[in-house]
Amino acid sequence: MSTAADPFSASVKKGWVRDGILRSLARNPSTLTALASALGVSKSTVNYHLANLLARGAIEIVDTRVGRGGVVSNEYSLKEGSLVILPSADEEEEELTSLEEVFGVETLLWGTASELPDGGRFEVLLYKLFLRLFKISKSEHRTLLEGYGYRTGSTLSHAVRGRNVRETLRELADEMGKREIASAQVIEMRGTRTAVLVLEKCLGSTDHPGYACHFLEGFIRGIVQPKHGAGQTVERLDVDLPACCLAVGRPKHASLEWLKEAVMHHPLRLVGGSSEEEEEEEKEKEGGAKVD
């Protein structure tokens, strides 16, 4: 799936990332890493906009910390006197209504689909939701994205075969890879009622967890629960991997800490991030202190 030629992705990067940064900083100071994670875009994209906003005098660095390995982390804030108009409660209510309309239009025919849509269709849906999220309080973003993801999954659950949760996950992982929704693999935990679904490049994103990741977390929950019962849960595992790790099934029968350890010791075949980002990180390391 090539995002370079995707006009929707291009529009997001050109305008809405900048607006998202300004709206976020108007509420609270933040770092490059936190902004990239919240917006679901790469650090290099956020760094580009931060540099431009600094040059224009719209934002300023309010704190600098040096971490392990000499990594420098800057905290940014909206500069005093800069004006960012935040939405009122009535405007947020209007945007929530608009989100519902967008979701209804984009998923209108999915209820009768015999297979999952291609990743590009998901990207269009997420982009159109994304345009309206910045007019809604940031604290609601994850809940909204997981909710719309769940509704999308439940709408399409009939298109994924499987007599039990593990069969469904294997089929889902295969289809997500074929349709370029995400690079997915399943780790089956023997002796438990749980499997771990490992997702990379969630709708093309290499930042985990980002907006696309939260949407797909809800999507997987929406696929599994209507087919196999509400007792089947989806829990995000906080592991040190460039991927989303979701424990699916009945995690209460296995300690989440045990599941994390099992994932870290499993011989995963990760596809990794983009070569351009890897090269950029290597250059920063060679040049000395890395600025965040």
Characterise this structure.
The protein is an alpha+beta fold and 292 residues long. The chain has two domains: 7-78, Arc Repressor Mutant, subunit A (Orthogonal Bundle), CATH 1.10.10.10; 89-276, Trafficking protein particle complex subunit 3 (Muramoyl-pentapeptide Carboxypeptidase, domain 2, 2-Layer Sandwich), CATH 3.30.1380. It is 50% helix and 14% strand. The strands form two sheets. It has a four-stranded antiparallel sheet with strand order 4-5-7-6, sandwiched between helices. Helix 2 crosses helix 3. The longest helix has 21 residues, at 7-27. It starts with 6 loop residues before the first helix and ends in a 6-residue tail after the last helix. The model is unreliable at 1-13 and 273-292 (pLDDT under 50).
Outline of this structure?
It is built from ten helices and seven strands. It has helices spanning 7-27, 32-39, 43-56, 89-106, 119-133, 141-156, 165-178, 211-228, 256-264, 275-286; strands at residues 30-31, 59-66, 72-78, 183-188, 194-200, 233-237, 244-249. The two termini are 29 Å apart.
In the CATH hierarchy, what is the superfamily of the largest domain? Trafficking protein particle complex subunit 3
Let me know the average pLDDT.
82
Provide the low-confidence segments as ranges: 1-13, 273-292
CATH topology of the largest domain: Muramoyl-pentapeptide Carboxypeptidase, domain 2
The count of strands amounts to: 7
Number of domains: 2
Along the chain, the helix and strand elements come as: HEHHEEHHHHEEHEEHH
Shape: globular
The major beta sheet can be summarized as: 4 strands, antiparallel
Q: Strand order of the main beta sheet, please?
A: 4-5-7-6
Secondary-structure content class: alpha+beta
